Structure formats: structure tokens, C-alpha cells
């Protein structure tokens, strides 16, 4: 058993005999526990023909286990006043709940049953629910456009695949396939149990040892890490919408790259705050969009730096031109004062976001599952403070050259978009 920590905020990490890793960070003065079971199963691990199976299993585990029916699971959490949830990403699945500290044993047993021993009851019925979710998602261009961008930036790379899957792949999933995928990916060495709040580490370890059976010889399925090819693609998807929804982006830093903190600073200056250049130039000065922002996503072997905006037909061409102009001159905007303001913004947002058991659990579980160092808030603040102008300029040159970015648009007519994507390889759907 290992214990690690800092003088300011400590966490404990144990690897149990059954292969599970258990991590906790105790918070004094609260009566709640944020509990998360992190599983190394995400969309990038799926074969193309099983696209969406990780997300499908996330749904199915709520449909019952070898011990509890779906109705019993719902009633137990309701009786506890707990807040259960689950989510799937490209690299992991999370099953989590927030609950009173006195209810940890009951909630843990139910979640362990769901994760380790799902019954996969009502598979066909739940498939219909997920297909309705796919249809709802495809009817929501502000969400769908981000998947379109990932596809055009990453191409055939697994990071380009949508988490939610497609109608064709989901329709073909049967019980045997679902069980086989679950048995291969929901294995103890690929599971991290993390908790924040008023939690006793040794008690949680005892619960994990009791409710997860040993799995001798279990092997974690790991993704093949490869760098995506560079692309410069403009994709237009025709859909009857009131707005044009546009994303631009390109490969960003990997999750472990030291220059990611400089990218966070650039992202804040570009479009991550109210005073950012995109917000001011596109929305405040010209009224070309209601929503415009930039963002960064980090993965094991690549990242994504991106911009989103939504505009009416008469504004989309000008908005796109303004954004490209901002990107072309982004290096000029990286003044010492702008960098200082961005760093202060990042530090403030970090501290505010981490002052809850749920945030602590999220940070802890994600870092351990993804084999990243667990940094205290103070350590992250130090890394942000260490970013200087040379670091920021290098990040702009490496990750924010619009000549190496791709773009995707969803809208009713291609002409306003195509007018400003000369030089891109074009796709239309």
C-alpha cells in the first residue's frame, strides 16, 4: 500500500491484491462523498464495426446486475438522496455518484454490481433509447459540429471517431458482442476507484476488495498510440438550420506535453474568456455571433486546439474572415500584460473549480487512470506561473497556424462557407 501527498493537500493511493487501484482525497468539513469508478474503456479502443459500444454499455449497466434490477437500482439511489451519473469519453468511462458519507457502503455495493456484474437486461429496449439519443444528437448541430471537426482533423485516426457511435453499428450489437467487450475492458487492472470528500481510505479499500472479485491474469486493453496525419480539410454538411455552425482546429499538445500550460494561456487569450480576442472581435464589436469560443482537448498521443462559432447566413462569411485574421495575427497579441491577465484568469478558474469533493475526485481518478502525475492545486499554479512569453509564442507557432488547421461547417447552403476556405481540401456531405 502506498501513501503520497503534499503538506497542503494529500491523497492516498493503494493497489489491491485484486488489481484495483483505490485513490482518495479527504476533505474536512463536508458530509458528502464523491465516488467515481473509472474504467479504461472509451471510443478510441473500439473496432470500427463496434463504434459506440462503450457508450452503449454505459447505458446498459443501469439496467440491472446479477443482484439488483434496474428499478431497484433507481429506488436505492433515490432513497439515499444520491446523485448517480455516468459518462463516456474517447479514452475512458466513468460511473459516479455523490452521496452522504453514511451511505457509502450501500452506494458502493450497487455501483460495483453495476460495473462488474451487469445483467445487460432489456438490451434491445435500451438500444432504442440510445438510438433516440443519436437522433437527438444529430439534430443538435452545436454539439454535432465538434465531432465533425474531430473527423476532419484526425481523419482515420481512432480519435476521429464519435463517442456516441452510428445507427448502423449500434443496430448490429448483440448480447454476445456486448458481453465479450465488457469482459475484455471492464477488468480490475483497468479500473480506478476514486473518492473525494468525507471518505475513509481504508474503508473504501475494504469495500473494493469485498465487491470486486480477483481476476488473475487479467490484461488491460491499451490503445495503439500513433500521431495523426496533418490535414487541411474544409467539410460542409448540408442541414436545414437557422444558423451556420462552424469549427476550426488542428492537432494540439498531448496530455503529457510540458507546453500544454502555454497552450492553456494562448487559448484563454484567443477565446477562453469574456475579454478574449474572439469574444471581443466577433461578438462585442461586430455582433456576428452569440456564441464564439476556443477550446483545447488533450489525449495520450495528440490533442486538439479549436474554435467554434455560430452565425446567421448573412454573417457567417465575415465572422469566418475575422477569426482567420485573428489567428494569422495571434502572435502579435501575446503581450506581457495579456499573458499575465490570462494566467491570473486560469489560476482563479482552477482554484474555484477545485473547491468541491466532486472536482477533487475527477482530478484524482482521471490522472491515475491515464497514468499522469497527480498534481496538487499549488503545483498546477506553479506550472501556470512558470509560463513566459517565449513559451507562449512557441505554442502559437506550433499549434495555431491556420494554414495547418481544418474546418467543418453545418448549414443550409455551402456558398457562405466556401467563400472563405480557398486552399483547403474540400468535402461536402
Describe this entry's structure for a reader.
- With 429 residues, this protein is α+β, with helices and mostly antiparallel strands.
- It folds into two domains: 210 residues, Cytochrome Bc1 Complex, Chain A, domain 1 (2-Layer Sandwich); 196 residues, Cytochrome Bc1 Complex, Chain A, domain 1 (2-Layer Sandwich), CATH 3.30.830.10.
- It is 42% helix and 20% strand.
- Strands 1-2-3-7-4-6-5 form a seven-stranded mixed β-sheet, with helices on both faces. A six-stranded mixed β-sheet has the order 10-11-9-12-8-13, sandwiched between helices.
- A hairpin with a 4-residue loop joins strand 5 and strand 6.
- It is globular.
The CATH architecture of the largest domain: 2-Layer Sandwich
CATH superfamily heading of the largest domain: Metalloenzyme, LuxS/M16 peptidase-like
Q: Give the tally of β-strands.
A: 13
Strand content: 15-25%
Structural class: alpha+beta
Largest sheet: 7 strands, mixed
Strand order of the largest sheet: 1-2-3-7-4-6-5
Q: How are helices and strands ordered from N to C?
A: EEEEHHEEHHHHHEHEEHHEEHHHHHEHE
Return the CATH topology of the largest domain: Cytochrome Bc1 Complex, Chain A, domain 1
Task: State the shape.
Answer: globular
Number of H- or I-type helical stretches: 16
Which CATH top level class of the largest domain fits? Alpha Beta
Q: State the share of residues found in helices, binned by percent.
A: 40-55%
- Counting structural domains, the number is 2
Distance between the termini: 55 Å
The average pLDDT is: 94
How large is the radius of gyration? 23 Å
